[in-house]
């Protein structure tokens, strides 16, 4: 598994904690929604940076009130064909203005990378060997023109406010 | 017509390059078939009984002669010389090789066509009334709005992996020719009490194994909000639609299980919360899109049209063609001409490369270079001067394209069925051919009047059998084909699902059964003016059941 963040591979400092494990005094800790909701308010105020992992069916609304305390929201895609996480991501970015790291985990494949990015994900946890191989070889998704507003660095087309271009191609 | 600008051209070219790479990776074994399937489907490539099948989008059913010639070329070079128009205003090629598909797609891109999202769990080709922009009864041309939706939904990052496919249709006239109430979203263009034009919104219609007529969830969506309102519906569906069972994944099941009221509340709440200012359609944008679909400059023609009236008075066949295949145009002296792809005994919707080229020529000569595809699997020349109709008719006859049967019992909608489709449980094309033969001679069909027969080869209902006046569903029982008959369905503004008459019929007896139903109708109708559907609505199914099951 590797973490691909903002277009490059990066080290992952997040630690996944389950119910049985003790909360460390500091560091980056990723909890399930249930674990996060069980966490005593006093512990939420510790020096730990918290993240929550949402499973499909768990909504952005469930953590809306807590977002100021979260540095990471990870969203699970159990199968790449299950597209619920795209909407969850957009709601977090657009409606709740979540500015922390948004990470896609699960069945993450090369041909969907632009969809993730344009829904507001800045990090992808990748296990698929072919996807890893393509990214390691420096392959990037090819689409540079988009017919609808997306998240991230895109330049609006002058003709219609919902048309956009990838920022890199506009400056190239 | 809508013309690609640089942006559109680049988008489609990039998309072709992307698919070419995906095909290469599939052929190299780097993508599993499971991983490849959604990618090829989003580019219109299906795996079928005999071969791959390529489905090409014809947005809102509008084609230029140049595009039609390209389709003819593809039929000839990559297929067996013909194509098949579908009930969703697309064209399918049944025999392309997978390795050729990227080449076909780049040929299509040269004429501003593509196969993007003709399949897959995404927003499909947005369909419209085939008489859009021409019909006399229209409130407004739906195509500018179809094009706006097409652009916004193309590779939409949020809505490319929906629970299931998603079909939108827009009708521009009170008489619904686009079957909006059997779509996932149907928009009907309406005028509100203040005289403004907008959309009545219907959701949750669909056929298939669980057919539903859509529910109206809003009387009036202003034009400005069309994209945002559609986004709200899609977001509710994307998050809440069922993903545990493919057969329950369409939005119709969500609306059914949740209730139409609750669905409306959820959509309204989402719409209120997440309206994106970039998606608001300003009057400038709407005017620009309308200009792409402006009525061609139609020179004024004499009314009454003497050439036309003269031929009509002398030639009964021509008069019959004119009354059956031509409807009123919004400009006096013009007509909207349907070209039937249902020759007597032929395969519904099939068209040869030569016929496509003939229609392209005729469109240039007589119809201001526009061709339409109707969801009934016919073609339409939307702007024909009535005085040119005699010449057009003669040339259509030369190409075997002048069958005067639009809306009649021989204008049958049929899916490919067991002859091509891997999901089929029975043949459908041969049944359509036999019914057509049975009624196709000696003016019999005209005497019967308007009567829609639709045939599907399995419960997926691609042939829309539920909404036919007489619907035929091919099933398989213990290895034998059996055909279930429904009556009383309708796809227009009076949309209704047909009623099953009783046990099914064998392949040998189904055409006799249809004939018995038709004969019964002829006996019980009040006059020639009472068509089959009105008669059924007056007398119910009883006389038809009786003739099929009780007299035996
Ligand atoms: C030969 C290959 C084809 C296959 C494998 C196929 C498969 C399917 C399936 C599985 C469905 C049901 C989807 C669902 O309910 O979720 C469906 C629906 C549909 N198909 Fe096809 N189809 C084929 C060809 C066609 C053709 C040639 C037409 C047009 C004549 C067509 C028109 C439709 C329409 C309009 C629906 C929607 C019915 C509804 O609203 O549920 N299909 N198709
Ligand atoms: S109705 Fe069934 S047999 Fe006919 S095309 Fe659709 S899936 Fe195939």
Could you explain the architecture of this structure?
- Chain A has an 8-stranded mixed β-sheet with strand order 2-1-8-7-6-5-4-3. Chain A has a 3-stranded antiparallel β-sheet with strand order 9-11-10.
- Chain A is globular, with a radius of gyration of 17 Å.
- Chain A is built from 6 helices and 11 strands.
- Chain A has 172 residues and is an alpha/beta fold.
- The radius of gyration of chain B is 23 Å and the shape is globular.
- Chain B folds into 4 domains: 6-110, Sulfite Reductase Hemoprotein, domain 2 (Alpha-Beta Complex), CATH 3.90.480; 135-289, Sulfite Reductase Hemoprotein, domain 1 (2-Layer Sandwich), CATH 3.30.413; 306-398, Alpha-Beta Complex (Sulfite Reductase Hemoprotein, domain 2); 413-550, Sulfite Reductase Hemoprotein, domain 1 (2-Layer Sandwich).
- Chain B has 552 residues and is of the alpha+beta class.
- In chain B, strand 8 and strand 9 form a beta hairpin.
- The mean pLDDT of chain B is 92.
- In chain B, the strands form 4 sheets. In chain B, strands 16, 17, 18, 19, 20 and 21 form a 6-stranded mixed β-sheet that branches.
- In chain B, helix 6 packs across helix 8, helix 10 (306-314) packs across helix 11 and helix 16 (510-524) crosses helix 18.
- Chain A binds chain B through residues 56, 59, 80-84, 86-88, 90-91, 94-95, 109, 111-112, 114-119, 130, 141-150, 156-157, 159-163, and chain B through 5, 7, 10-11, 14-15, 17-18, 21-22, 25, 30-31, 35, 38-39, 121, 151-162, 227, 235, 238-239, 243, 273-274, 276-279, 285.
- The complex binds protoporphyrin IX containing FE and iron/sulfur cluster.
